[in-house]
Design brief:
Order of helices and strands: HHEHEEHHEEHEEHHE
Radius of gyration: 20 Å
Shape: globular
Largest sheet: 8 strands, antiparallel, barrel
Helix content: 25-40%
CATH class of the largest domain: Alpha Beta
CATH topology of the largest domain: Alpha-Beta Plaits
Number of domains: 2
């Protein structure tokens, strides 16, 4: 432990980051995910993006310590939907975000005139049921398949058991398949989950082990328990849809210091 503390102290000195700043950044970390979605108004997507970039400049000027990702929905019934969100923070950090009233006023001025609000949702990372944490580590891929899942009330344990078995089966596997599962806290029908499967392009699906849906995840990586787990899924899932999120780096924001 003493050696680890010494190394940490040396790193803080060598990077010029003081200990108090490190503690502030660390205090922001958590398992919350806040997701916002907008449809750019017809024929105004360029104006929407210009306004949103201006709003991101406000975050830079105010030294916002929360990361903000941006995607466009590329496939599915919500084609063209703009999604932004902050991940890997504590719920308290969202409550205490920088200059909240000014933030809202600037968004209303720069971006809102060109957009129609679609939804706002709050999720909690299920770290115990996930294998990768790219958004929490500020390391997004160029695309993701997003599965929006609703399970029957009372069937949460059956549904989550499938992911527990998957994580347990692949945790010691080199280059294990990356999935991140979030549980809905607020903003839609309960009980809801968001499953994100990162990928960089559509050639991902050329791989025989590509995760196309939860069924393929079970059959490929937990074959010995597949019949029972698929039965759990059939009894628990009420509704599920999928869509592709295409990452927009130019419409995303990150604080200067990486977590």
């Amino acid at each position: 432990m003493k050696h680890r503390l010494l190394i940490l102290s040396m790193l803080l000195i060598s990077t010029g980051m003081n200990a108090s700043h490190a503690q502030v950044i660390d205090s922001l970390k958590g398992q919350a995910a806040f997701i916002f979605a907008y449809y750019p108004k017809e024929s105004l997507q360029q104006e929407f993006e210009q306004g949103y970039k201006q709003h991101l400049d406000w975050h830079r000027r105010n030294n916002d310590q929360l990361p903000w990702y941006a995607w466009y929905v590329q496939t599915g019934s919500r084609l063209g939907l703009f999604i932004d969100g902050t991940f890997g923070i504590s719920f308290r950090a969202f409550d205490n975000r920088v200059n909240r009233s000014e933030d809202a006023a600037d968004f209303a001025k720069t971006t809102a005139p060109y957009a129609a609000l679609a939804f706002r949702k709050v999720y909690k990372l299920r770290k115990d049921l996930s294998t990768t944490f790219l958004l929490e580590n500020w390391n997004p891929t160029t695309g993701m398949e997003a599965f929006d899942i609703t399970v029957f009330p009372g069937a949460e344990k059956n549904f989550e058991h499938v992911f527990f078995e998957f994580v347990n089966a692949v945790e010691d596997t080199p280059n294990n398949p990356g999935i991140t599962l979030y549980q809905l806290i607020s903003g839609d029908e309960h009980s809801g989950y968001l499953l994100l499967v990162p990928r960089n392009n559509f050639s991902y699906y050329d791989d025989d082990k590509a995760i196309i849906n939860i069924k393929s995840l079970v059959e490929t990586y937990v074959p010995d328990k597949a019949p029972a787990l698929l039965e759990d899924l059939s009894r628990s899932i009420k509704r599920k849809t999928s869509e592709t999120w295409q990452y927009r780096q130019d419409l995303s924001y990150f604080p200067e210091k990486k977590p």
